C-alpha cells in the first residue's frame, strides 16, 4: 500500500454524509502521510493542488450520489485510484444518514473510522483470468454512424441485452461487458466497480458499474452464473472501455449456469443493431430539443 | 410508443419505472436533466414540481437516474421479480402448465 495519497473528499457542510466524508478524509490523512485537497479551493485555485493530485494515487470520498468530488476529479482530468460514496456504504450497514444531524456523534464517528479503514484496505489480489486467446477477437464490426459518433457491434459470437451489455460465451464460460453505446453516452470513463469473484449473479442482475463525470451506469448481466474472473486491468485503466469495450474493455468472466434457456432472452448482432439505431435516434432528437 | 416491446413483451405490460419519494425530493431536477427518455416532467407552477409522466419510456432495468439523486428519493421495482414476470409473459403461460 502506498504511504501517501491525495485525498479529495466531498465538502458537504449541509449533509451528515458530507460531514462524514470530511471526517474520513481527515482520518486517512492522519493515518498515512497523505495530502488533503479542499474541493472548494481547488475550484478557484487549481495550481494549489494540481501537482499533489497528479503525483499521488487519488482517493475520492463522495458524500452522496450527487458525486461532487468525483465530478470535480473528472473535470480536472484526474485518475482515481480508489473511491467510496458515504451514503451507499452507510446503507450497506443499515444506517440512514438522511435523518442524522449535522454534528457527528459517537456512532457517526465510529462509522467514519470503519469507512476510512475500508478505503485504505488493500484490494484482494484476485486474478483468475482465463487465457484471453480463448475469447476470439472480432475480425470486423458492424458500424453504425450518427454525426460524429461511431457505434461498433461485433457481428458474431456475441449476444446483447436491450440494456446495452454483451456476453461472449465460449464453452461453459463467458465474458461480459458493455457496448459502444454505453461508452459513447458516458464519454470518458473514470472509474469501474467490478463484481466480486465468486458471487452468483442472476440474469439481468447487477454485475458492477462504470462511471464517468456524466453518470453511473449499472452493468446489467446478460446471463446468470458465478463470477470466475474480473478484468482488474480496468481499475488502473478504465479508459480501455472507451477504446474497445468488446476486447480489452471486457468486465468479468462467468461460469454459465443456464445459457441455453437464457439465450432466448438475448439479441444477436442484427437484433441489437435495430435497438441501437432507435436509441441513437431518440437520444439525438432529445439532445436537439434540449 | 405503444408498439414498443422489451424482450418480446409489450412494454406497457412491464412494471418498471422510478417512484419519487416526495418526502425526500427537493426538486433539484438532476434526474430530470439526466434522463434522455422524457420519463420525468417538470410542473413549475404546481405544488408537486416533478412527476413520472411517461413511465413506459423508462428503459427496463435502468436505474441510472436513481444514481444521480443525492437524497435517494428514487426507487425502482425489484429486478428479480420483474425478470420473473417478463419470462412468464414470454412463455405465454404455456410453459407454466
Number of helices of chain B: 2
Strand content of chain B: 5-15%
Q: Return the CATH class of the domain at 20-75 in chain B.
A: Alpha Beta
* Greatest interface: A-B, 26 and 27 residues
CATH homology-level superfamily of the largest domain in chain A: RNA polymerase II/Efflux pump adaptor protein, barrel-sandwich hybrid domain
Radius of gyration of chain A: 20 Å
Helix percentage of chain B: 10-25%
Main sheet record of chain A: 6 strands, antiparallel
Shape of chain B: elongated
Verbal overview:
The complex is a heterodimer of chains A (290) and B (97). With 290 residues, chain A is an alpha+beta fold. Chain A has 11 helices and 15 strands. Chain A has helices at 16-31, 39-44, 46-55, 68-75, 86-92, 106-120, 180-186, 233-236, 240-243, 259-262, 269-289, and strands at residues 6-9, 35-36, 58-62, 80-85, 142-146, 149-153, 159-160, 165-170, 173-178, 189-193, 200-201, 206-212, 216-220, 225-230, 252-256. In chain A, the strands form 4 sheets. Chain A has a 6-stranded antiparallel β-sheet with strand order 7-8-9-15-14-11. In chain A, helix 1 packs across helix 6 (106-120). The radius of gyration of chain A is 20 Å and the shape is globular. Chain B has 97 residues and is α+β, with helices and mostly antiparallel strands. Chain B has helices spanning 30-34, 79-91, and strands at residues 5-6, 9-10, 19-20, 40-42, 50-52, 74-75. In chain B, strand 1 (5-6) and strand 2 (9-10) form a beta hairpin. Chain B starts with a strand and ends in a 6-residue tail after the last helix. Mean pLDDT of chain B is 88; it is low at 93-97.
Amino acid at each position: 500500500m502506498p504511504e501517501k495519497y491525495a485525498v479529495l473528499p466531498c465538502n458537504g457542510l449541509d449533509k451528515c454524509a458530507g460531514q462524514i466524508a470530511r471526517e474520513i478524509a481527515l482520518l486517512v490523512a492522519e493515518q498515512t502521510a497523505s495530502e488533503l485537497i479542499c474541493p472548494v479551493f481547488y475550484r478557484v485555485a487549481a495550481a494549489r493542488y494540481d501537482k499533489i493530485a497528479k503525483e499521488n494515487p487519488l482517493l475520492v470520498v463522495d458524500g452522496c450520489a450527487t458525486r461532487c468530488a468525483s465530478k470535480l476529479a473528472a473535470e480536472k482530468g484526474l485518475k482515481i485510484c480508489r473511491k467510496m460514496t458515504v451514503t451507499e456504504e452507510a446503507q450497506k450497514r443499515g444506517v440512514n444518514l438522511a435523518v442524522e444531524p449535522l454534528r457527528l456523534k459517537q456512532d457517526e464517528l465510529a462509522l467514519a473510522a470503519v469507512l476510512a479503514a475500508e478505503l485504505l484496505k488493500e484490494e484482494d489480489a484476485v486474478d483468475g483470468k482465463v487465457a484471453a486467446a480463448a475469447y476470439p477477437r472480432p475480425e470486423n464490426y458492424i458500424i453504425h454512424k450518427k454525426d460524429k459518433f461511431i457505434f461498433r457491434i461485433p457481428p458474431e459470437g456475441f449476444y446483447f441485452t436491450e440494456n446495452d451489455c454483451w456476453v461472449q460465451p465460449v464453452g461453459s464460460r463467458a465474458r461480459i461487458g458493455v457496448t459502444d453505446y454505453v461508452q459513447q453516452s458516458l464519454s470518458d470513463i473514470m472509474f469501474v466497480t467490478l463484481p466480486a469473484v465468486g458471487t452468483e449473479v442472476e440474469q439481468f442482475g447487477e454485475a458492477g458499474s462504470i462511471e464517468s463525470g456524466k453518470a453511473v451506469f449499472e452493468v446489467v448481466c446478460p446471463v446468470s452464473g458465478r463470477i470466475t474472473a474480473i478484468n482488474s486491468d480496468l481499475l488502473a485503466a478504465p479508459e480501455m472501455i472507451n477504446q474497445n469495450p468488446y476486447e480489452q474493455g471486457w468486465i468479468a468472466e462467468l461460469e454459465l449456469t443456464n445459457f441455453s434457456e437464457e439465450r432466448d432472452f438475448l439479441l444477436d448482432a442484427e437484433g441489437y443493431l435495430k435497438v441501437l439505431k432507435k436509441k441513437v435516434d431518440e437520444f439525438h432528437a432529445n439532445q436537439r430539443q434540449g | 410508443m405503444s408498439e414498443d416491446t422489451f424482450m418480446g413483451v409489450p412494454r406497457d405490460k412491464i412494471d418498471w419505472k422510478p417512484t419519487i419519494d416526495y418526502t425526500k425530493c427537493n426538486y433539484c431536477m438532476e434526474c430530470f436533466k439526466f434522463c434522455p427518455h422524457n420519463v420525468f416532467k417538470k410542473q413549475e407552477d404546481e405544488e408537486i414540481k416533478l412527476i413520472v409522466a411517461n413511465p413506459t419510456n423508462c428503459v427496463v432495468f435502468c436505474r441510472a437516474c436513481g444514481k444521480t439523486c443525492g437524497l435517494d428519493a428514487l426507487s425502482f421495482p425489484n429486478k428479480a421479480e420483474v425478470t420473473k414476470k417478463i419470462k412468464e409473459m414470454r412463455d405465454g403461460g404455456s410453459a407454466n402448465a
